[in-house]
Design goal:
The protein is 70% helix and 0% strand. With 209 residues, it is an all-alpha fold. It folds into 2 domains: 7-56, Arc Repressor Mutant, subunit A (Orthogonal Bundle), CATH 1.10.10.60; 66-186, Tetracycline Repressor, domain 2 (Orthogonal Bundle).
């Protein structure tokens, strides 16, 4: 999570974290469906409006690192200097998978898997992350690819995270998946430059006087 610098930002971040920690504790103790936003607000000693100022929905309370996840992937693209794209993304995904497969995360994922609302939210979140990652890849001038190629590789990377998290051996799964992703990226041709009207072989160039 990005560390805020100003006093006001630190206080805001502390409140947000307190709400998220309180919500998660209540969800794990009582069950996700049995806890409402008012319960979370009362337990965290904040107003309901304060909860909604930090989290757009009850489901978002479970995925409180959602924004951080998205930013980390975008930074892996923008901050990689001369490092190739796929190894940079692989390293970031590996760190995220390691965090999400820690023993302490097991009860949380068990709760998510048991809740249709949370599974649906996670799916929409993954699609949003893939779009954000595709935008970051397309914005890099060193990566000259079509929008379709950028979106496809971004989807593969986000799916790699999900598949590795669910695998019995996450590391082996990541190794296997990223070999395929790297191979796909390596054979993706750069977009063709449109031919000028006067270039040989174009209709205009072939036309006689």
């Amino acid at each position: 999570m990005t560390v805020p610098t100003g006093r006001r930002e630190r206080k805001k971040a502390a409140t947000r974290q307190k709400i998220a920690d309180t919500a998660l504790r209540l969800f794990l103790e009582r069950g996700f469906d049995a806890v409402g936003i008012r319960d979370v607000a009362a337990e965290a000693d904040v107003a309901v409006t304060t909860v909604f100022s930090h989290f757009a929905s009850k489901e978002a309370l479970v995925f409180e690192r959602d924004e951080d996840f998205e930013l980390r992937l975008a930074r892996a693209v923008a901050g990689r200097a001369d490092e190739p794209l796929i190894p940079a993304l692989r390293r970031e995904v590996q760190a995220l998978v390691r965090h999400c497969t820690a023993d302490s995360a097991t009860p949380i994922w068990r709760m998510i898997d048991a809740s249709p609302a949370l599974r649906e939210y996670e799916e929409s979140m993954r699609l949003r992350h893939a779009e954000a990652l595709a935008t970051a890849i397309a914005a890099d001038p060193a990566l000259s690819q079509t929008a379709t190629a950028c979106r496809a590789i971004a989807r593969f990377v986000i799916d790699a995270y999900a598949l590795a998290r669910e695998a019995a051996d996450p590391q082996t799964a990541l190794d296997e998946i990223f070999r395929m992703i790297e191979a796909a990226w390596a054979v993706t041709p750069p977009p063709e430059s449109p031919e000028s009207p006067e270039s040989p072989g174009s209709p205009a160039g072939a036309a006689g006087p």
